């Protein structure tokens, strides 16, 4: 069976739409979701330009059996089901790129999928707008790599295509560290802003600051136990720097809560609590955070 040169993008949320719109003129791709048909995707760029992109949209049952690559952009808790559906439809050795937050879907998928699995860590900002719209709110940087540093050529090739499409991407051999770093930041910010329904910058208020500091202190201990190198500035300064830089953001978990969607609580806090158990560490601030966070 010959390989179809097209990429599949599984999940038509903000990230899936952003990939589909950005790739439209560079790399033949198919957006897989519930909604099919020929409506163009309407992307608002960070510069405020509104662009219409013709994007092929199919259900998975209509997708080619040997796509060149599959981007999985669903939420973390939907990855297992997505891989089950993919396994029934596409060739077992198809390369997959995972775009989830946390550190739950990635090791599981790397173990179970027969083909190469790359993980992405991105700081691209995007949100959906209506049925066919996506707002690319801010340019970011994406890193791409295999958890054990395998498939460097695939990571380099995929990164080059994404970069040419306007999503700056670098292949790397330390994606595990990058995933844990993002998880640490997400753990300190996302649950609290979702619980209190506040923007990121409001965490600087005296009402929240001590709780953020306590969470970051526990996360720092866990990262050391997991032998994850700390950021150059140290964990506290790193997290407060992100809060400062994203002060006006409504974090993704807050957006989920406001839209009545399931949150990424388990993908973000689960691996930390599991690491605490493995290392016999007491983490009362994180346990309380898990109990307070909507699922
Ligand atoms: O990644 C984020 C998110 O919203 O998920 C942060 C860094 C918290 C920015 O809002």
Automatic annotation (TrEMBL):
Listed EC numbers: 1.1.1.169
Claim: Oxidoreductase is one of the keywords in the record: yes
Domain of life: Bacteria
Listed Gene3D superfamilies: N-(1-d-carboxylethyl)-l-norvaline Dehydrogenase, domain 2 (1.10.1040.10), NAD(P)-binding Rossmann-like Domain (3.40.50.720)
Family in the record: Belongs to the ketopantoate reductase family.
Source organism per UniProt: Modicisalibacter tunisiensis
Residue intervals of the Ketopantoate reductase C-terminal domain: 174-289
Keywords of this entry: NADP, Oxidoreductase, Pantothenate biosynthesis
A Pfam match: ApbA_C
InterPro entries from the UniProt entry: 6-PGluconate_DH-like_C_sf, 6PGD_dom2, ApbA, Ketopantoate_reductase, KPA_reductase, KPR_N, NAD(P)-bd_dom_sf
Name of the protein this chain belongs to: 2-dehydropantoate 2-reductase
Entry keyword Oxidoreductase: yes
Pathway: Cofactor biosynthesis; (R)-pantothenate biosynthesis; (R)-pantoate from 3-methyl-2-oxobutanoate: step 2/2
Enzyme class: oxidoreductase
Residue ranges annotated for the Ketopantoate reductase N-terminal domain, each copy included: 7-148
Catalytic activity: (R)-pantoate + NADP(+) = 2-dehydropantoate + NADPH + H(+)
Function: Catalyzes the NADPH-dependent reduction of ketopantoate into pantoic acid.
